[in-house]
Design goal:
The protein is of the alpha/beta class. Helix content is 38%, strand content 7%. The chain has three domains: 2-143, no CATH class; 150-257, no CATH class; 270-453, Ribonuclease H-like superfamily/Ribonuclease H (Nucleotidyltransferase, domain 5), CATH 3.30.420. It has helices spanning 2-12, 28-39, 44-50, 57-64, 83-94, 99-106, 110-119, 132-143, 150-153, 155-166, 203-213, 224-232, 257-260, 279-282, 342-353, 375-382, 398-407, 422-433, 445-453, and strands spanning 169-170, 176-177, 289-296, 302-308, 314-318, 363-366, 385-388. Strands 5-4-3-6-7 form a five-stranded mixed sheet, sandwiched between helices. The chain has a two-stranded antiparallel ribbon with strand order 1-2. The chain is elongated, with a radius of gyration of 32 Å.
């Protein structure tokens, strides 16, 4: 092995580079196509299929990069030789084609081809042979411009950033308060799960505060983007990945901006949006138009709420766990069995709406929760016109949001709602419907509904 390395150095005039093993086939263009798909809002599996790589490889690339486009993947400009060109060079060189003829066929300078054959040739077993895979690996190694991150060599800055991110919470006596014990599992915290306690400054707060705390020290400066990259990109900085748990989002991977703009549910089409709702629903002049939502409790418990916009009459939906919940009957990617899934909500709404006369069951407006993914079947079963609010716009269902606030008096946050049966829910709804309302001229919702039901 030593003689081979010495011969390689003698033949090439440069020290032999340590080989990482079998050279990988160039994937620069493929990686660029993958990240283009991610930037367009595609999921990792979809982007992997679009660029022709295996399904597990796409998520692996995404995790390794922390969800951030690698800085070494610039837009291919054609300035440098591509892997396909190196394959052509290897083929022609093996056929004893001259350097100038190869350059002419590829549309490159002869000096470019000459340097390529000299610099990036394989030198294994004491022989100089040009192979496209080895040449591509050597070219990518030579193109690397390693730069030590500021947080790596500046201990004071690194300690400052870490303390503001994950520093201990203290009481008025300076004693540390540990908070809940949360193990970092390499992914975002669970739904309604405990969060790690820390100072939890945002990277932007840390970046801007440095200017006030160290006005004369130019070395104590770092951008918020550099902090994010140190957290999300492996090997980019000295910060541990588990410190992402101290960010307010708690994300272990960054989310591309295109995905955040596409957070609307896939089952919602433009004609179902609230902007397409008829004017008669908006002015509350015609009864029979409802707003709905879920009230969530502990242990994935929930109840549904339906509020009529004109009379403010309220009906509560009993959502008990479905058969097979927390048993061996669980099926991966099957229907949600906790009681708040799409099938359970669809059946509960249909059951309640069936108790109303036809002229009081015209439309239903809901938020974009996945529990309404069965809205097409619900419309067939009940005849209700279904509309959805815009994302993160609960004020568009103001009547329902106000009613949910009143119901929290009976079902506070942090309680297990599953302990209440349909009998208790109907009693609470009746109590709420018996309260006089200012907007109804101090009549009760029950009295307003009875006026609509009684013959003229």
């Amino acid at each position: 092995m030593g003689r081979a390395k010495g011969l390689a150095q003698e033949l090439t005039g440069r020290p032999a580079m340590r080989s990482p093993g079998r050279p990988a086939i160039n994937q620069r263009e493929t990686r660029w196509a993958f990240w283009e798909g991610i930037a367009a809002g595609m999921q990792t599996v979809e982007a992997a299929q679009a660029c022709g790589i295996s399904q597990p490889l796409g998520p692996r690339w995404f995790r390794e990069a922390g969800g951030v486009l690698p800085t070494n993947l610039g837009t291919p400009s054609g300035r440098y030789l591509s892997f396909s060109e190196r394959e052509e060079i290897a083929l022609l060189h093996a056929q004893q084609v001259g350097v100038r003829e190869i350059a002419k066929r590829l549309g490159r300078s002869p000096s470019t081809i000459s340097r390529e054959l000299h610099r990036n040739a394989a030198t294994g077993a004491g022989k100089v042979q040009y192979r496209a895979t080895v040449a591509q690996w050597k070219a990518e190694r030579a193109a690397q411009r390693p730069k030590i991150a500021k947080l790596v060599h500046n201990d004071a800055l690194r300690n400052y950033v870490q303390d503001r991110l994950a520093g201990h919470v203290q009481d008025d006596r300076g004693k540390r308060l540990a908070g809940p014990l949360v193990l970092w599992k390499g992914r975002r915290h669970g739904h309604r799960a405990d969060r790690r306690w820390g100072k939890s400054w945002s990277p932007q707060q840390i970046s801007q505060r440095l200017m006030l705390d160290f006005p004369e020290d130019a070395s104590m400066r770092i951008s918020h983007e550099a902090i994010y990259q140190a957290l999300y990109i492996q090997g980019r900085g000295a910060l541990k990945r588990e410190l992402t748990a101290c960010l307010r989002t708690g994300r272990a991977l960054r989310v591309p901006q295109a995905r955040t703009r596409q957070r609307g549910r896939q089952f919602i089409t433009p004609e179902l949006m609230i902007s397409e709702r008829p004017a008669e629903i908006e002015d509350r002049a015609v009864p029979g138009h409802w707003e709905g939502d879920l009230i969530i409790g502990l242990n994935r418990s929930a109840i549904g709420t339906l509020v009529e916009r004109t009379t403010r009459f309220t009906m509560l939906l009993h959502l008990p766990p479905m058969p097979g919940h927390q048993t061996q009957d669980y099926v991966k990617n099957g229907p949600a069995l906790a009681g708040r899934g799409a099938e359970a909500v669809r059946d509960a709404i249909a059951l309640k709406i069936a108790t109303l006369p036809a002229h009081l069951s015209k439309s239903l407006t809901w938020d974009q929760g996945s529990e309404m993914s069965q809205h097409v079947q619900l419309r067939i079963d009940t005849g209700l016109q279904i509309y959805f609010c815009d994302p993160r716009s609960p004020w568009q269902r103001g009547t329902n949001e106000n009613t949910n606030g009143l119901l929290r008096q009976y079902f506070p946050k942090g309680t297990d709602i599953s302990r209440y049966g349909e009998r208790e829910l109907d009693a609470v709804a009746a109590a709420l419907n018996a309260r006089p309302r200012k907007t109804l001229g101090w009549r009760t919702p029950a009295e307003a509904l009875n006026e609509l039901l009684s013959p003229a």
